[in-house]
Amino acid sequence: MMYKTFSHVFVLLLSCVGESYSSSTMKTWILNNNFNNPNNWNTKRNPCSKDRVVFPAHENVVVYIPGSLKFRTMVLPMNGQFVLGTSAVISLSEGSVSAASPPCEGQDVQFEGLKGNWFDPPNWNVSSSSAINIAGGSYPSPIPHSEQVPCPMDNVVFPVDKSFKVSVKTQTGEIKVNSIIINGMVYDNNNSFSTFIRSPTGKRLFDSDNSLLTVEKNDCSDSTSCACGNDRRDILLVICAFRTPQCPTLQCSDPIQPIGHCCQICGSSLLMTYGADFKFNPVKQLFTGHLTKPQNLEVQGYISKTHDNKIQMIFVDGKSSYGKAAQLAHEFESSFQKEMFGVTSVVMKRSVQWNSGIFPSAHKSELSGGGVAGVIIALLILVALAASVYFIYKKRRIPGFAFARFESERGRVELELGTTPHEVLDPAELVSSSGKHSTSFVNPMFESSAASFYGKDEPEEFKTPEGEQNGLENPMYLVDNGVETMKQQ
After folding, report:
1. In terms of DSSP H, where are the helices of 233-362?
2. Pairing relation of β-strands 179-182 and 268-274?
3. CB proximity list for 440: less than 8 A, separation 6 or greater
4. How far is 461 from 153, CA to CA, in rounded Å?
5. Burial 354-387 (b: 16+ CB within 10 A, else e)
6. Facing residues of 72 across strands?
7. Containing H/E element for 197?
8. Beta-carbon-side half-sphere exposure of residue 205 (alpha carbons within 13 Å)
9. DSSP 8-state secondary structure symbol assigned to residue 42
10. What tens-digit pLDDT sequence spans the chain (489 residues)?
11. Cα Rg, the chain, nearest whole Å
12. E strand spans, 73-167
């Protein structure tokens, strides 16, 4: 199919130095539709010199071209926009490849582009003074999903030299932010931003109803802090529609779910209510001071105000600090009980049971009453077993103690005499003088005098009458044990 040609807008976009913002909370868009981003192509690689570059006919996007490009042919869409970097050069190769060029077989490479949703948390990178020790890309993050997307007092940044396509369509109503910075250009009032979003470029960058996304100055002046508000049920449902299907497998068997989180996490949280004399800054300073101590640097934390006017602290363990999050929550709870800071009540939740088999030393002294009792009972059982084994061992070592057991099972004979260990006699090893295998064994008492056993003159009842063979009669000889049982006299 042949695509219709169109009048392209090639814009040489110079970086603009705008107003400097030093806000404590900033949300930066991550996805981009740059030409040199392999994820934007169906082949998951950038086009090479022999490729035929194809933009779908109705792909109405802005594509940033940062540097030199070389390809065989380009099929343009019906409508679109290229943004050229200062060093951008586009050339056709006519299929020829220099010796220095990487291997290129040549094929149709189709642009797919990355369109992300405003309410999908992973599309944003969060920079906030309320987030302490945050490691990029780690899971779980202590920052609630509700606050990973822009809040009304946040500054939203779309980076320099990046093109994008973001969907802002939602049923939650108007979306407000403090400011929007696009490629260095600052929009800090709704008049200037509404003009931009209605422009051809704005419509290509934002898939939105014109009045849905607004910019409104919203500096927080409340001494108890200002709530983001995205943890309200209607907005949180939209956010969690993206996150809940991707909740990961957890390493603990007692997870918690802080307010604003779409998934349960292994960590700890404090939810505080407060009175009229409460001030947020002293509590935040205490929070920051604890988490920035050298021994706590692997613990990630976040503090914020919920939509129903409570203060929430969330702690998450690092890769090698299992148990620290729970310990910190306990320490903070104790601090508020002693100093209060205007806090009237605290609800603490902690994960302490790890499926990975890691039981932190920090929790060994924090066992519940039932846990302590269980440990004591287990120790008593072990002591009793050890005493029993020791008693049996000593008993078997008593002089004069003798015991013999002769068993025959499946052609194997086991012999135990006194304290002599078990000896398993293999019939294959018992060979008679005639060379035949035998399942019998030598009776050490056969043809032996009782005197040799007792170490003195044998009793009268054991003496052998004259004329008879010296020996002992086996009362079980030729008796079928399966049929007849010896009765005691």
Report:
1. 233-243, 280-291, 324-339
2. unpaired
3. 430
4. 109
5. beeeeebebbeeeeeeeeeeeeeeeeeeeeeeee
6. none
7. helix 190-197
8. 24
9. T
10. 333 333 333 333 333 333 333 346 899 999 999 999 999 999 999 999 899 999 998 888 899 999 888 889 999 988 889 999 888 888 887 655 555 556 787 899 999 989 999 999 999 999 999 999 987 666 789 999 999 999 999 999 999 999 999 999 877 778 999 999 999 999 999 999 999 999 999 999 998 876 689 999 988 899 999 999 999 999 999 999 999 998 988 889 999 999 999 999 999 999 999 999 999 999 999 999 999 999 899 899 999 999 999 999 999 998 766 789 999 999 998 888 776 789 999 999 999 887 755 444 333 334 444 555 565 777 778 777 777 756 655 555 444 433 344 444 555 544 444 444 444 444 444 454 455 555 455 555 555 555 554 455 555 554 555 555 555 555 555 555 444 444 444
11. 41
12. 73-75, 81-84, 89-92, 108-110, 115-117, 124-128, 131-132, 155-158, 165-167
- Asked if residue 177 lies in contact with residue 215, where contact means CB atoms within 8 angstroms, the answer is yes
| Beta carbons of 437 and 429 less than 8 angstroms apart | no
206, with CB counted inside 10 A (0-12, 13-18, 19+), is: buried
How far apart are alpha carbons 59 and 115 in whole angstroms?
11
The tokens for 243 are: 């996150």
Give the pair of three-digit tokens for residue 92: 């056709």
The token pair that represents 68 in the structure block: 């030199």
- Please name the helix (run of DSSP H) or strand (run of DSSP E) that holds residue 370, with its range, or none: helix 369-396
